[in-house]
Specification:
Elements (H helix, E strand, L loop, with lengths): L10 H10 L6 H9 L18 E4 L2 E3 L2 H11 L8 E5 L5 H10 L4 E6 L2 H12 L4 H6 L2 E5 L12 E6 L8 H5 L1 E12 L3 E8 L5 E9 L7 H6 L2
Parallel strand pairs: 3-4, 3-6, 4-5, 6-7
Antiparallel strand pairs: 1-2, 7-8, 8-9
Helix pairs in contact: 2-4
GO molecular function: protein-L-isoaspartate (D-aspartate) O-methyltransferase activity
Enzyme class: transferase
Keywords: Methyltransferase, S-adenosyl-L-methionine, Transferase
């Protein structure tokens, strides 16, 4: 945690703290996180701005604000207006909404979540957020499906984010990444690294590890519901 649980109770103050700690460094990321109120996307609004992950049911968590901010920063150059982004394991819809705000109405943001109940609740969350107009016009959408297979309909993507840890990088996601695009994904089982995958113009990829992390596993719907 980058701040104490009781010290932050407003979305704007949360973003300012992320800036003060050097996690948010771009105006575009700060603006998106200010516009999309995290409190709309969590079950307990009183804890919405605490720098900690939170359970949202179905053995799924919403990541801590600093992790969301880190992923937004890593993808920031691939989230320009008009670009396409895929959010695998979109959960509550929070980061999908942030992506949508950054790529704008001329871009496209797609969330994929294999728990239909979470898809339904995330749509309601987005409808209550500043990203609602993008949802209504269709540049933002959330689908029920196996995110390990990506979402081929709107590929290739400039940016792909994965919100759960895969034992290895799914080939389908690399295939759906545009040359010049970037994929951010936690990889590993007990020990996990946040990996940054850049696709080169010739289709080859470069991979680097950003930091050690701890995410829930990217697995099947059945295994997730069992808590495996």
């Amino acid at each position: 945690q980058f701040w104490s649980p009781s010290s932050i109770n407003k979305n704007k103050a949360m973003v300012e703290n992320l800036q003060n700690h050097g996690i948010v460094t771009s105006d575009e990321v700060a603006k998106a996180m200010e516009v999309v109120d995290r409190g709309v996307f969590v079950p307990d609004r009183s804890s919405a701005y605490v720098d900690s992950p939170m359970s949202v049911g179905y053995n799924v968590t919403i990541s801590a604000p600093h992790m969301h901010a880190m992923c937004l920063q890593l993808l920031e150059k691939h989230l320009k207006p008009g670009m396409r982004v895929l959010d695998v394991g979109s959960g509550t819809g929070y980061l999908t909404a942030c992506f949508a705000v950054m790529v704008g109405s001329e871009g496209r943001a797609i969330g994929v979540e294999h728990i239909p109940e979470l898809v339904a609740s995330s749509v309601k969350n987005i409808e209550a957020s500043a990203a609602s107009p993008l949802l209504k016009e269709g540049s933002l959408a959330v689908h029920a499906g196996d995110g390990r297979q990506g979402w081929a309909e709107f590929a290739p993507y400039d940016a792909i984010h994965v919100g759960a840890a895969a034992p290895e990088i799914p080939e389908a996601l690399i295939d759906q990444l545009k040359p010049g695009g970037r994929l951010v994904i936690p990889v590993g089982n007990i020990f996990q690294d946040l990996q940054v995958v850049d696709k080169n113009s010739d289709g080859s990829v470069s991979i680097k590890s950003e930091t050690s992390v701890r995410y829930v596993p990217l697995t099947s719907r059945e295994a997730q519901l069992r808590g495996d």
